[in-house]
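[Q] Does anyone have a clean structure-token version of this?
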Amino acid sequence: MARAEDTPADEPTSPRAVVAGASGFIGRAVVSSFRERGYRVGVIGRHAPVSWDDPAAVAELIDGADVLVNLAGKSVNCRYTDRNRDEILRSRMETTRALRTAVAVASRPPAVWLNASTATIYRHRTDAPNTENAGELGEGFSVDVARAWEAEFFAGDLPTTRRLALRMAIVLGDGPATRMLTMLARIGLGGPQIDGWGPQHRRYRGIGPDPSVDGRVPHHRTRGAQRFSWVHIDDVVEAMHFLVAHAELDGIVNVVAPTASDNRELMRTLRRIVGMPVGLPAYRWMLELAMWALRTEPELVVKSRWVVPERLSAAGFAFAHTELDDALRSALARRVGARG
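[A] Here you go.
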């Protein structure tokens, strides 16, 4: 069976990377970056040359690869209906389990496996930032998904494969979060998003074998002071290459810019960039209606995400984008370039 990989140059001695879930905007950037560095890149996905429905092909592709990157999983940019909740969890668990099975049976397993995770695993926090060593995990649907995903990733014994779970903050680039926030600013709804009273629902209830909460919607009266941790897409990609090169690092790594913002500053910066002088504040009950129309969830903007990259910074990684204004302008310029 021939390997289903994209070979930028006919050089069989060049390193090889396998990327699962390469169709999203992060995956496309990762694949492009590995190609630029001379890697032969193979991809796994529902519509990729190697499909999840063919475990033998998955195993063959992974055997002998130098690097494995897993970004597979249904996007969380959706309404948390029962069907979507189940698919968000299932898609992460099953794909990660399939990759771990393939790595375990490989005669030459990858030296390093980078697996996506999320900084949303940490609790709503305004008193101090969450680090890998001192972070406090939260509760609810998104946290339960992240916990289960990481547990699946680190399960079993893979003695020759170094594993790193990348707890990524909201990624600024040509992705759904940036598009949604920019649209709110453009139409005059770019004021602070204010938590408070809203209609109760059970979409955020826990999931998995040991659900963490019963589903009552938590309210935090932060009045737009909820923290906003973020990372530029370029720094996500560069952090991956840095982690591949630094064999002393494994386990959990926060992939997030070192300078967190807050919600008010985020929306004020977006208004300035798009040239919208007015930004109406949005209260929780208003957000429930707006996010229903946008087919996403208010959790994206009302949860306080305060995370710092303790391990990357200690290892000497230099972020290219540390200022929110610069990162947003770069992300929006890239969107315009992509459309053009």
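[Q] Thanks! Anything notable?
[A] The radius of gyration is 20 Å.
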